[in-house]
Amino acid sequence: MSEKSFKYAIVGGGLTGDAAIKGIRELDHDGSILLIGKEKQLPYDRPPLSKKLWFGKKRVEDIFLHDTNYYAEQGVELCLGAEVINLDIKQKTFPADNGGSYKYEKLLLATGGTPRRLDIPGGDLEGVCYYRYLEDYLRIRGEAAEGKSAVVIGGGFIGTEIAAALHINKLHVTMLFPGEYIVDRVFPEGLGRAIQEEYIARGIDILAGDTAVSLEKKNGKYITNTKGGKRLESDIVIAGVGIVPSVELAERARLEIENGVVVNEYLQTSNPDIYAAGDVANFPYLALGDKRRIEHWDNALHQGAHAGLNMTGAMEPFTYMPYFFSDLFDFGYEAVGEVDSRLETFADWKEENETGVIYYLAEGKVRGAMLCNVWDKVEAARELIRKGERVKPEKLKGAIS
What we know:
This protein is an alpha/beta fold and 401 residues long. The protein folds into 3 domains: 4-114 and 243-311, FAD/NAD(P)-binding domain, CATH 3.50.50; 129-239, FAD/NAD(P)-binding domain (3-Layer(bba) Sandwich), CATH 3.50.50; 330-396, FAD/NAD-linked reductase, C-terminal dimerisation domain (Enolase-like, domain 1, 2-Layer Sandwich), CATH 3.30.390. 22% of the residues lie in helices and 31% in strands. The strands form 6 sheets. Strands 1, 2, 3, 4, 5 and 17 form a 6-stranded mixed sheet that branches. A 5-stranded parallel sheet has the order 7-14-8-9-10, with helices on one face. It has a 5-stranded antiparallel sheet with strand order 20-21-24-23-22. Helix 1 packs parallel to helix 8.
């Protein structure tokens, strides 16, 4: 197969890569674009995999960002189900496992992350689901018949969302995680325990402060053995224990790596013709004055589009403050900034642990805000964080309403 040349190459076929196309086309209407990614499906939205698809609010066909006609109209060559093997930054070329060889002028790494695996005996057992991809949803959806049982390992965002989804679909669910309460890295203790009690009241078994030490499969059932001596039998095992940024290609190209691919405020890597965005990028969060890597939908969307703009020569700093959201039964929230339960928190409740705003503070300054069943106030929270003013927590009462 002969080498193909493109002005822009996007490695990664998810939301970030798709958004980059839009960014490129804002300023360059004609430059050739390659979108190459490991998944065989067209780019799709990931949040519905643990939310709306389970609640009947979306169908699988609704989650795809565009159809093939869109990419053709945008002058994009799609190369799906193919993995880039190596990256020659001097020659600006790369081979893929489909036998193709490609040349670029500007390249975007939108490689995202892969699910963290359980490093225990049986962690690689066939059928254990490390929930992240559309194929995972399709498989588990097919197995999740009413009356079946599931063990969900992990008490973070994915674990809590998929546990709620399975329960609503009438499975018996057991959650297993090492923290004292669900989403303990984000929720203040009072809120976390209140939501956990709601899960328990609905019939979900919670094994907090415990971990899986081995997995087995016997007579068609999975057996999860825990550090606390429990032996949990289930039809399904789902692990949601975070992701690892997919930096292997960047490492082979000897780009700077530190908790992801390091980029500057323009989303350029240590090689100025290569950009990175989305889950894989460790970027300067200008509003907070530090560097971080963010694994949420809104960041992937806006950062991908911004990288696309800068690849065309715009070279504008990325100043956007991404937010994230979740729905846990009747409790929904949107959050922005640094929402870390280790920070000082102040809760301005209208209804305790149901409706209100939680502020996260460091050195007297608001670093983040969680809007609990409060909607359309993310921009107000952003403005409060951007100000960076010292404030007494009690003065925050009514600051966002």
